Amino acid sequence: MLKQIEGSHAVAEVVAKCRPNVISAYPITPQTHIVEELANIVGQGKLDAEYVNVESEFSAASVVLGASAAGARAYSATTSQGLLLMSEVIYCIAGMRLPIVFTIANRAISAPLSIWNDQQDSMALRDSGWIQLHAEDNQEAADLHIQAFKIAEETNLPIMVCMDGFILTHAFEPVDTPDQKEVDNFLPPFRPTNIVDPRWPRGIGLFADPRFYMETRYILHRAMEKSEETIKKVSEDFKKAFGRDSGGFIKTYKLEAADVVIISMGSVVGTIKDLIDQLEEEGKKVGLLQICSYRPFPRKEIYNTLKDKMNIVVVEKSISLGRGGILASDVRWSFPRAEKKDRNISSFIAGLGGRNITKNDLRYMVEKVEKEPVELEFLGLNKELISEKDL
Amino acid sequence: MIEIRIHGRGGQGNVAAAELLSVGAFMDGKFSQAFPSFGAERIGAPVMAFVRIDDKKIRTREDVQTPDYLIVQDYNLIGSVPVLDGLKPDGLILINTEKKPEELQLKTTAKVETIPATEIALEIIGRPIPNAIMIGAFCTITGLVRLDAVQEAIMGKFPGRVGENNVAALERAHEIMQKR
Q1: Three-class SS of residue B101?
Q2: Residue A267 and residue B61: Cβ atoms within 8 Å?
Q3: How, if at all, do strands A377-378 and A293-295 pair?
Q4: In chain B, what residues touch A174 (CB-CB under 8 Å)?
Q5: Rounded to whole angstroms, how far apart are CA atoms A57 and A63?
Q6: Is the pTM of the predicted complex or chain greater than 0.80?
Q7: Can you tell me the distance from the alpha carbon of A213 to that of A208, in angstroms, rounded to the nearest whole number?
Q8: DSSP 8-state secondary structure symbol assigned to residue B86
Q9: What are the chain B neighbours of A112 within 8 Å (beta carbons)?
Q10: A3 neighbourhood in chain B, CB within 8 Å
Q11: Nearest-by-Cβ selection for B40 from A4, A115, A117
Q12: Chain A positions in Cβ-Cβ contact with residue B33 (cut-off 8 Å)
């Protein structure tokens, strides 16, 4: 049913319809209304699930790890420092091949303390063996959770559904939340294949000496690469079942004739699309390539889609300090070095710690890369706040 | 696309006002987006919330910077925060104050309207929360969102006495603005 609803509540409603058996979360800032609403849903008896209230995010992640290993469909949501506190368990969940789904309400990392949006938190865990899917709006955020449980359980890989904190989680906009029957038809009950059970004693994720450990990483890496097919197929099946284009690997907007291509992910692509329409009216051809699946990374799609495009600009809400744009590095690596040396791939960092990203900022970015390539620039930086002695 | 910026202080129901306007617009068959200017909200701290209303899907995520309409829930914010920033010259600003618009001498060509919302809230709701009155006055002046859609939104969010009191306050605001 289409309704005007807060992003967090839409996600909670849809997660409940995915019938998780165990939900665990640490209900303090940084958190969202997602787990609060799920606690309500379970408390009112509308969802038959075990809701485990814990004393830290580390414990929340540990609870869902154990629950999943015992055969439960398990879910949690976190963000920012909470995700970092979980990070040890995050790696374990992937290593044990447990198909757990998390919502990450993307937010900045301390210090200094910031509760606002950027994508540094999930970026910090990008190498952990979790699939990372990024939502453009609240409809996609809701839809991605239905897809995520299916992808996770078909691949035995855990998934982070990433949605921009505050910008999406706290925004009211129309979301079509499917009814229970539609979700049940799409998402079959969880049939775990990788469990611990006292009737057939075995362990998972126990101990691997140098003869075995490297192979586990190789297998996990290949599984991540192979999950591309499942992500695409589930997204196509979702479209057939629900009539909406949600998720997938990449999406494009007005790309064919574009002289400049913007690459980005998350909610800022909405602002970018509005700018592209404005620029089109002024006679400028700018297009968008939107990353839906950040891990596994759509390297081949990017190359195949953009091999004739010579002016590309990546704008992202995170940074590898001492290196530069993380998404920009991934994009630059997507093109063979030997080929077309005059292809320009510019890198802009924007929106860190909740800095507003305006159409004017993005317009400036496009106009700048039309003139010259940009190795790295912080968009909307207030130079008055920075003195020479800081540098 | 119509853009609205709401200024107020933590505890005045700014985010709820934005939500209710957006839900009302949705019930009217329009596309709408509402979101707070995020912060560590504390009672009394200056806060903002934003609403967009359009006939097509709303994609942009930037803060509202050139609003068509301003709703100011606390008159004293004017002067302490840049409330008038970006307001369109032919726009409208609705302020919660007992003063008349011409007494305020605001530096804007936009239309200025006032309503003593806190006073009305204390009388009808019994608490100094002006948001329902401000929305009622706003919808009456602009005709942007149907009043009964907002009433339905209020009763949906606050079933029972709280909702009924707020609907009564909203109706009072409607009567006052209609007489002008």
Answers
A1: helix
A2: yes
A3: unpaired
A4: 26, 31-32
A5: 10
A6: yes
A7: 5
A8: T
A9: none
A10: 26
A11: A115
A12: 171-173
Query: Residues of B with CB below 8 A from A274's CB?
Result: 59-60
The tally of CA atoms less than 13 A away on the side-chain side of residue A36 is: 12
Q: Of all residues in chain A, what percent are helix, strand and coil, respectively (each to 5)?
A: 40, 20, 40
CB < 8 Å to A116, chain B: 38
Q: Do the chains contact at B62 and A356, CB–CB below 8 Å?
A: yes
d(CA B33, CA A274): 15
Task: Walk me through the domains of chain A, giving residue ranges and CATH numbers.
Answer: 2-242 (3.40.50.970), 250-390 (3.40.50.920)
Cross-chain residue pair B62–A358, CB shorter than 8 Å: yes
Residue from B62, B63, B65, B152 to probe the interface with A (highest A Cβ count within 10 Å): B62
B19 interaction partners in chain A (CB closer than 8 Å) = 6, 172
pLDDT at position A29: 67
The one-letter code for the residue type at A311 is N
Task: State whether residue B34 sits within 8 Å of chain A by CB.
Answer: yes
Local confidence band at A123 (pLDDT 50, 70, 90 cut-offs): very high
Name residue, tokens 């695409």. Answer: A232
What does the block give as tokens for A338? 């030997």
CB A241 within 8 A of CB A266: no
Chain A residue with CA closest to B49: the answer is A171
pLDDT tens for chain B, 180 residues long, are 999 999 999 999 999 999 999 999 999 999 999 999 866 667 888 999 999 999 999 999 999 999 999 999 999 999 889 999 999 999 999 999 999 999 999 999 999 999 999 999 999 999 999 999 999 999 999 999 999 999 999 999 999 999 999 999 999 999 999 998
Using an 8 Å CB-CB cutoff, list residues of chain A that contact chain B. 3-4, 6, 115-117, 137, 164, 166-167, 170-174, 267-268, 270-271, 273-274, 354, 356-359
Contact B61 A270 (CB under 8 A): yes
User: Which of B19, B35, B62 has its CB closest to that of A357?
Assistant: B62
pLDDT at B103: 94
Q: Is B29 on the interface with A (CB under 8 A)?
A: no
Token representation of residue B78: 């004017």
pLDDT of amino acid A341: 73
Tell which B residues from 43 to 102 touch A, by Cβ distance under 8 Å. Answer: 58-63, 65
The string of DSSP letters for A324-386 reads: B-HHHHHHHHTS-TTS-TT-EEEEEE--GGG----HHHHHHHHHHHHHS--S-EETT--GGG-
Render pLDDT for A202-258 as a digit per residue (tens, 0 to 9).
999 989 999 999 999 999 999 999 999 999 999 999 999 999 999 999 999 999 999
How would residue A71 be classed by pLDDT, with cut points 50, 70 and 90?
very high
Q: How far apart are CA B33 and CA A270, in angstroms?
A: 13
Question: How does pLDDT run across B49-99, given as a tens digit for each residue?
Answer: 999 999 999 999 999 999 999 999 999 999 889 999 999 999 999 999 999
Q: What tens digit of pLDDT does each residue of A128-178 get?
A: 999 999 999 999 999 999 999 999 999 999 999 999 999 999 999 999 999
